[in-house]
Write a structure and sequence with these properties.
38% of the residues lie in helices and 20% in strands. Strands 1, 2, 3, 8, 9, 10, 11 and 12 form an eight-stranded antiparallel sheet that branches. A two-stranded antiparallel ribbon has the order 4-7. It has a two-stranded antiparallel sheet with strand order 5-6. 49% of the residues are buried.
């Protein structure tokens, strides 16, 4: 039976010696596709911005509109549409190939440009006196998806095409998919870091949407097929979703096809549990990624979906804090609240 609390709950803590020095509070929910909570922490009705954790939902119109097939997109392109990637050479190769299919240029992407997270690519740009382009933006795949849908339906001057405007047909389709998947009607929105609209929902609704991606009962055949293709693309190309040094990629390489995880900015994480037909959503109130990463790994391990004995997994669940002299000073770990009084989580 899930509990319903109405304030943020302490979910992650940092110990120095044997004393809690700092704490991260937040909200988390595990739900089925009908909105039945299996477990919750904090306030599952807390309204949040999902940020990039819902990119698979934002990619649904790319398939449901027929745009992906119209431009003969492959699994790698669909994966990039769901990605928050490092902007490394492997990501740029797919993005450039996709842009060529559209016969457009980087300037047509409205996500803006930022330095790549990939160290080798960043060094390459610096060594050659080059500046980042929109393709280096971690959201370039999502924007390529939007632009593909727009290009299929509107054969007009794309330099003047504001496909991220809330009233543009692309965003109308995205909002409709978001509402149907989350059950949130007429959500508020604000601009994401990449300038696209990001719609609000509750933590519970976000978890439900992930359960819908796991088990899309009640949706039409077109939606079911689109979800399957996106899930398959993500699981077949985990390196494209983030990067070899990033948690999303590392976890999905260990998932054996059982789950998909996706980070969102400001302390958001989601997970799709395929076999169980469940979704997980969490939000760390202060936006700390160190806490959201610890929490998503801990909960997946507690559910038996990750190996607690795996050294890399253990080091995220109980991340050692080392000082400049290489002496251990403490640990970052999930709080006792996560363990529900020591009782196992049974799905």
């Amino acid at each position: 039976m899930a509990s319903r609390n109405f304030g943020a709950e302490k979910l992650v803590e940092i110990l120095r010696g044997d004393m809690v020095e700092s704490s991260h509070y937040g909200h988390m929910a595990i739900s089925d596709n009908k909105g039945n909570l299996k477990y919750s922490w904090g306030n599952p009705e807390k309204i949040i911005y999902p940020r990039s954790s819902c990119k698979m939902i934002q990619a649904l119109p790319l398939l449901e509109s027929g745009s992906a097939d119209n431009y003969k997109l492959e699994s790698k392109h669909l994966a990039l549409a769901c990605a928050s990637h490092n902007g490394g050479s492997v990501h740029l190769e797919v993005a450039k190939d996709w842009l060529q299919k559209l016969n457009l240029e980087p300037k047509h992407l409205l996500c803006g440009a930022h330095k790549p997270y990939d160290i080798e690519e960043l060094k390459y740009l610096k060594d050659n006196g080059l500046t980042p382009t929109q393709l280096h933006n971690n959201c370039s795949g999502k924007h390529l998806g939007f632009l593909t849908v727009s290009r299929k339906f509107q054969k007009i001057n794309h330099e003047k095409l504001n496909y991220i405007d809330i009233e543009h047909p692309v965003q109308v389709m995205v909002q409709k998919a978001f509402e149907e998947m989350t059950g949130s009607i007429n959500p508020k929105f604000a601009l994401d870091g990449c300038s696209a609209p990001n719609f609000t929902c509750t933590v519970e609704a976000l978890a439900r949407s992930m359960a819908n991606l796991a088990r899309p009962d009640g949706f039409g055949q077109s939606r079911k097929l689109a979800i399957k293709r996106l899930r398959d693309a993500v699981l077949q190309n985990p390196h494209l979703i983030a990067g070899e040094d990033r948690l999303c990629t590392k976890l999905m390489k260990r998932s054996a096809g059982r789950f998909i995880v996706k980070v969102g900015a400001e302390g958001v994480y989601t997970a799709i549990l395929m076999e169980e037909g469940l979704g997980i959503a969490l939000k760390i109130s202060d936006g700390a990624r160190r806490a959201s990463e610890c929490l998503i790994v801990t909960i997946l391990a507690k559910l038996g979906l990750l190996d607690k004995k795996d050294p890399e997994i253990k080091d995220i669940m109980e991340a050692p804090i080392i000082n400049w002299s290489k002496h251990p000073t403490g640990v970052l770990k999930a709080s006792e609240n996560i363990w529900k009084g020591g009782k196992p989580l049974i799905l």
